[in-house]
Amino acid sequence: MQLQTLKSPIFCNKSSLKSPFLHENQTFLKHPHREKPNLNGFALKNCKGVGIAIAQNSWDSQKFSSFCGEDENFKSIGKVADVATLGNLCVDIVLNVPCLPPASVEERQAYMENLSASHPDKKYWEAGGNCNLTIAAARLGLNCVTLGHVGDEIYGRFLLDVLHEEGIGMVGMNEDTEAAASASYETLLCWVLVDPFQRHGFCSRADFSKEPAFSWMSNLTGEVKMAIKQSKILFCNGYAFDELSPGLIISAVEYAMNVGTTIFFDPGPRGKSLLLGMPEQQRALKQFLRMSDVLLLTSDEAESLTGIANPILAGQELIRKGERTRWVVIKMGPKGSILITPQSIACAPGFKVNVVDTVGCGDSFTAAVAFGFLYNLPAVNTLALANAVGAATALGCGAGRNVASLDKVLDLLRVSDLNEDDIFWNQLLDGNLNTPEITLVSKMIVNGTSDRMARVSIQKVVSELLPKLETQQERRIVSS
């Protein structure tokens, strides 16, 4: 795909900050809140004036609508959504530029304002942030809802249409206030920039303020609380702190705990800056690490938060310090991944693929971990699926609507070409792990087990995953 070129750049920089979100041109639909379309069995429900897109073939819309408008202390009628995401909703705009953004804050801000002076063609737009996770999860058959803010302008309508097309609900976090003309009420944009040497950079208005982008939010609305209560998982990542205040984020976490919603947290690259940030950011991060049921980190992020280089030992340390932590999942790129519980360690090598773009791979991986958690899959099955979904996203350009399709995931699982490296895994596991159960997915089985670990055949794992995924595939075909 040829990206739009910015003809009048004003600065140059050699740094590389972020991979681009590349994508194909897509149809721009009319705003679902205004015309309430009926697309492929989708209905639009309204709770106290908040539009929520509901996929009729997956959501129990009768149950969901039955509690709209009720008091927040109503008795639970069952959790009708699988995953709710908190904040981190944005539109990514990918542009070719002769030079990347400059280093100084003032010059970078001027650069971004120059970019924002005109609207690039819609074919350069893509849903970003937590949309990546929810789209990947929805394609696996999970029912998803996003909690956040989008503005009532062209970018916000685009983002809502993308979510609607993918069967993902959206609950606005506005505090019963009319949208102001101020930029603080507009949809957050991330300008993803690619220079002639394929180096990448990005900028957003959130980069230029000490306050979160939506600092005007101070309380959880009744609609947001309802959505959290009716979701099995609440997911949050470190980028939510760019938009929402630490106090508001923690209030959502505490409410989720009170209503029995599982908490997934991925600190991401923001983890280190939050650890060294303002006191309220540090407190919020520490509370997340203590109170989350599932933590997801790269090996580098785990080391930065614990000071422990070995990712397994780092994960065990996070579990030891956590009050509710059941899983710590460590992502190691093409090497694979690890799932650590208080009683066990599960390991799975990654799949061999020709990587095109790694943007969105981590989000897609998390969607599959949520699938495994909700379906109570064996740990190694969950990891193998997550590796496959992440790898399937890497086969395409960018994220958003270009994350893994279920067809690509199934193809990778059926081929089962693992990136095995016994030396790597033996070295990683050659420590005082004090864990009674260690399991490794493998193409080769040597008498089934060894003194150190049990090896599980990838063929066995795939034979257990395929029926569940093929059922989801059939349902998507029927619903379309």
Percentage of residues in DSSP E strands: 15-25%
- End-to-end distance, in Å? 27 Å
Residue share in helices? 25-40%
Q: How do the strands of the widest beta sheet line up side by side?
A: 8-7-4-11-12-13-14-15-16-17-18
Largest sheet: 11 strands, mixed
Q: Provide a count of the helices.
A: 16
Instruction: Give the number of DSSP strands.
Output: 18
The unreliable regions are: 1-76
Radius of gyration: 22 Å
What's the average pLDDT?
Answer: 80
Would you tell me the structural class of the helices and strands?
alpha/beta
Shape: globular
Structural overview:
The protein is an alpha/beta fold and 480 residues long. The protein is 36% helix and 20% strand. The protein contains 16 helices and 18 strands. It has helices at 32-35, 61-66, 105-115, 131-139, 154-165, 222-229, 246-258, 270-275, 279-291, 299-306, 311-321, 361-374, 379-394, 406-415, 422-429, 458-479; strands at residues 4-5, 42-47, 50-55, 81-86, 89-96, 125-129, 144-148, 169-172, 189-194, 200-203, 231-237, 262-266, 294-298, 327-331, 336-340, 344-349, 437-442, 454-457. An eleven-stranded mixed beta sheet has the order 8-7-4-11-12-13-14-15-16-17-18, sandwiched between helices. Strands 1, 5, 6, 9 and 10 form a five-stranded mixed beta sheet that branches. A hairpin with a 5-residue loop joins strand 9 and strand 10 (200-203). Helix 10 crosses helix 11 (311-321) and helix 13 (379-394) packs across helix 14 (406-415). It is globular, with a radius of gyration of 22 Å. The relative contact order is 0.12. Mean pLDDT is 80; it is low at 1-76.
